Amino acid sequence: MTIYQNSYSFQHVIEAQQFDRDTLLNWLFPLADVMEKIARAKGVRDFSNIRGVNWFEEPSTRTALSFAIGLDLLGGRMVYSTENAGKFSSRAKGESIEDTIEIINGYNPNIIVARFAEAGDAAKAASISSVPIINAGDGNNQHPTQALLDLYTVYREFGRVETLKFGVVGDLANGRTVKSLAYLASKFPNVQFYFISPSSLNISKNITAYLDKHEVVFAEHDDLREVASILDVIYVTRIQEERGSFLTDQELEPGRFSINQEILDIMSDEAIIMHPLPRKNEIPRYVDKDPRARYFQQAKYGLYIRMALYQMILYPQMVPSLLHL
Amino acid sequence: MTIYQNSYSFQHVIEAQQFDRDTLLNWLFPLADVMEKIARAKGVRDFSNIRGVNWFEEPSTRTALSFAIGLDLLGGRMVYSTENAGKFSSRAKGESIEDTIEIINGYNPNIIVARFAEAGDAAKAASISSVPIINAGDGNNQHPTQALLDLYTVYREFGRVETLKFGVVGDLANGRTVKSLAYLASKFPNVQFYFISPSSLNISKNITAYLDKHEVVFAEHDDLREVASILDVIYVTRIQEERGSFLTDQELEPGRFSINQEILDIMSDEAIIMHPLPRKNEIPRYVDKDPRARYFQQAKYGLYIRMALYQMILYPQMVPSLLHL
Amino acid sequence: MTIYQNSYSFQHVIEAQQFDRDTLLNWLFPLADVMEKIARAKGVRDFSNIRGVNWFEEPSTRTALSFAIGLDLLGGRMVYSTENAGKFSSRAKGESIEDTIEIINGYNPNIIVARFAEAGDAAKAASISSVPIINAGDGNNQHPTQALLDLYTVYREFGRVETLKFGVVGDLANGRTVKSLAYLASKFPNVQFYFISPSSLNISKNITAYLDKHEVVFAEHDDLREVASILDVIYVTRIQEERGSFLTDQELEPGRFSINQEILDIMSDEAIIMHPLPRKNEIPRYVDKDPRARYFQQAKYGLYIRMALYQMILYPQMVPSLLHL
C-alpha cells in the first residue's frame, strides 16, 4: 500500500515513521498552529459533508474525545463513537479486523479513527480500507498521533527539534509513547536520548538497535538527578502498574524517576517537563505552577495536531491557502 | 470560586443550595416553561456554536440522554458522550479529577456535563475549570438538576412551593435526591416535611440538623397511611437493594412505604404523587392512570430544566427577551 | 395497536411479518435503491429537524453504527447512543421496558432505534410509544431490519424472490436471523427452504410449523454438499459458541456446514453466498474473491434499507416523489 503521497497529503495515519522531516516542519506543525486559532474561535464549517466514525476496540476516552471535538471544530461530525468495541462488538465473537473494516467501509464514512487491541492491526486495516484510517493506537505497537503531538510540543517551545537532549524517564518497557517518540525524534539531526529507568523497566533492545542503526546518540541511566541539569526535555512517564510494573522502595526515592524540588532546582531555566498523562505521583501537583511544566499544553496540542491531520487527509488541497502559501 | 453571579446567570451548577428563591421563581422556572415550547416544536438554532461534552464517570443513561437532547434542541450538540469513564478512562488509572478536567478544558468545549463517582468532585472540578460544569450527580452528595426538576414539578402543579406539606417515602438513607430536595425546598417559607421510612433507612442526621437550623418543621413516621391524607406531595423512592437496603415482610405491607388503593383513597384530590424513577413495586402500574400521578411529567420536566440551565449558563443575555421582559 | 397504515407509511418496525409483498417490492426495495445513491453522494438535508435515540440494551455495535450513519446521511442526527443500557441503565435496577420508553417519549425525540434484551419487548414498547420505534433485535425473537436487508440482497441479485431455493446452513437453533428470514421469504410464492444443520442445532419446530401452515416447501439436511448444486441462495450462519453451540469433529468437515472449494465447484454460477456476519471459519477468506460472494454487499445494503425505513416512518409523503412516481 502507498500511504504516503506527498508532503501534505496522505491517505492513512498508521505509524510515526511515515512522516518525514519536511512534512513535519513545513506542513503539519504550521498547520497545527492554524488549527489552534480555529479551535480557540468558533470553529469553521469546511467539513460539513464529513462523517467520521470513532471505532475504539479498547477505551481511551480522552483520545476519542479529542478526535471527536477536533472533527466538529472543522465542521464535520463524529457520527458514531464506540468506546469498547473489542469487548462488545463482533470482534469479541472472533471476527477479523479486515472484515470489521470492510463492513464499516460499506457504510461509506469519510474517516475512521480507530484504536486497535492488537499490534499491527492498524496496518492490516489500512491495507484493505478505501476509507482513510487514523491509528489511535494499536496494541503495544504505535500511537502515532501521541508521538506527533509530543514532537509538536517540543517544536513549539524550542522552535526546533535538532540538537536537543531528551531525557525519557520511568516505565520505558511498556511505552508505546516512548517508542513512537524515539522513532520520530531520531529523524532530526544531533538529537540525543537519555533513557532513565529502573533496570526492570529498561527501554527495549528493538528501540536501541533502531537508534544505533540511525546513528542517534543515546545513554541509559538509573537516576534522573545525575542528568537533569543537562537535559532540554524531561519526558516523564507513569509506572504502568496495571501491566505488572512496580518500583522498589529505593527506586521510589523522589527525584530518581520522578520530579521533585531538587530536580526543579538543577534543571535549566529553558528546559521543559512533559508527560503523556495520566500521571500519578511521578509529577507532584506543585510542579504544575513551575513555568517549565508543559504537560497540559501538550495534551491540548494533541487537539490541534489531530485537526491538522484531518485537514491533510480529507482536504489537502486547502492546506497551502490555510498556511497563506 | 464565585459560581453565582446574578439572578439569571452563573458559571457552574454544582449544588442545589446555590439557587436562591428569586432565581428559581422569577428566572429558572419561567424559563423552563419557555423551554417546553421549544422542545415541543422543532427546537431552535441559537446554540449553533456550542459544543458540549457528556462526561459520565458512572452510567446514568437517562440523565445523559436528556442533557444531550436538550442541548440539541437549543441548536448545540453533545460532541462526545462517555458512559462509564470511571471504569474506562485515565481516572481508572488513578488520575485526579482536577487533571481530567484540566485536560478536557484544553479541548475548549463550551460546556461539560459530568457525573462524578466521588462526593465533592463536582466542587473540585469547578474550582479549576474555566469551562462551565453542570453536576449531574457526584457520588452520594448531590444531584442538583434532579432537585430542581422536582421542585419545578411542584411549582407547576401548585403554583407555589411555600406552605406545602411534603411526604418523602421509602429509602431515605441513600437518597441523594431526598437530600438535594430538602435543601432546596427549605428555602421556601412554611414548608413541612414528613419523612416516612423504615427504621433501618431513616433520613440522615445531617439533613435533620440542617432543617432544624433553618427552622423547617419536619416529622418522622414509619407508615404512610398515618399521614397520607394531609400531604400535598407524596414523593416515593425506591428501596436501593444494590446498596444493601431491604424491607422486612412487615415493612413490605402495601401502603406502608408504597402506594396502594388505600393511599389513593385517603389522599387529597389536589395532592400529587412523585417519584424520581426508576420505580419497582412501590408504585404499582395501575396508579399511572390516577390523575394525581406526576412521575412521568416529572421526568419530562427535567428536560426543560436542563435546557433552561444551559441557557442561563451559556447565553444569559438572551434570558430576559425569552421571558418577554 | 395499528402499526401498519398503508403501503409506504407505518409508525413502528417491530417484526418482519408486518411487511407485505406489495410494500417490499413496490416501495421499500425501490426506495432502498434511491438511498444507495444518497449514501454514495454527500447525503441530503431533508431530516434536519429529526433527532434520533439509539437505545441498545445489549451491544450490537455495527447495527447501531449503520442506524446512526443512515440517519445522518438523511440530514438528521442520532442525538444519543447508548451501547449497553441493559447493564448500565435503570433497566438494570428492574425498571419495566414500558417505563423506560415512556420516559424517553417525554424527551420528545422523533425516532427511537432500540435493541431489547427480552423477546417481545419491542411489541411492548410500541404499544405505549407515540414516538416511532424501530426494533433492532429483541432477545431471540426478531431482528426485522436484518431480515429485510437479507431479502433485499436476494431481490437485487435475482430481480425476484419467488421460486428461489434458499439453503440455510449452520446453527439454526439460535438464529433470530433465520427465523425472521423464513417468515419474510415465505410471503413469496414457490419459495423453497433447505435447512442444513447438525442434529443438535436444527431449526425450531415453531418455524417449520409456520412454514407448513403457509404451505411453504422445506427440507432438512445434514450436509451442504448434498444440495449445494441446486440452491440459488446459500445462507451460511456462524456456530454461536457463546450460546453453547458446537460442532463435533465429524461435523467440522469442510463443506458439510461450511463453504469450501468443493462447494464453490458444485454451486450454480448464478447462485449467491450470503452470511449475516460476523463469520469465523465457515466461510474461508479466499471465498471473498469468488464472484458469488455477497456477504459484504449484504451488510452494506443494510444501510440503505434502514435509511428507507426512516423515510417511510418519518416523511412518508416524500416517498412517491423520491421514487419519481
Give an overview in words.
Three copies of one chain form a homotrimer. Chain A has 325 residues and is an alpha/beta fold. Chain A has two domains: 4-143 and 300-318, Rossmann fold, CATH 3.40.50; 145-299, Rossmann fold. Chain A has twelve helices and eleven strands. In chain A, the strands form three sheets. Chain A has a five-stranded parallel β-sheet with strand order 9-8-7-10-11. A four-stranded parallel β-sheet of chain A has the order 4-3-5-6, with helices on both faces. In chain A, helix 1 crosses helix 11, helix 2 (61-73) crosses helix 11 (295-314) and helix 6 packs across helix 11 (295-314). The longest helix of chain A is centred in the first third of the chain and has 20 residues, at 21-40. Chain A is globular, with a radius of gyration of 20 Å. The mean pLDDT of chain A is 93. Chain A binds chain B through residues 39-40, 42-43, 59-62, 64-66, 68-70, 72-73, 77-78, 81, 83-84, 238, 242, 277-280, 285, 296-297, 299-300, 303, and chain B through 49, 51, 53, 77, 79-85, 88-91, 93-96, 98-99, 102-104, 106-109.
Low-confidence stretches of chain A: none
Which architecture name of the largest domain in chain A does CATH use? 3-Layer(aba) Sandwich
Q: How many helical elements of chain A?
A: 12
- Tell me about the largest β-sheet of chain A: 5 strands, parallel
Return the structural class of chain A: alpha/beta
User: What order do the SSEs of chain A take from the amino end to the carboxyl end, as H and E?
Assistant: EEHEHEHHEHEHEHEHEHEHEHH
Helical residue percent band of chain A: 25-40%
Number of strands of chain A: 11
Number of spatially distinct domains of chain A: 2
Q: So what's the CATH class of the largest domain in chain A?
A: Alpha Beta
**Apparent shape of chain A:** globular
- Quaternary class: homotrimer
